[in-house]
Amino acid sequence: MNASGTVLAAELEIGHHHQVTIGGFTFNVDTIWSSVVAGVIVLGAALYMARRAQSGRPSKLQLAFETMVDAVEKQVKSSMGDVAPFVVPLAMTLFLYILIANWLELIPTQGWLAAPSGDINFTLALGLFVVVWVHAAHIRQKGLRKYLSHYKHGVPVLAPFLNAIEELVKPFTLALRLFGNIFAGGVMLAIIALLPPYLLWAPNVLWKLIDFAVGAIQAFIFALLTILYFGFALEPEDEEAPAH
Question: How many domains, in total, are found in the chain?
Answer without folding.
Answer: 1
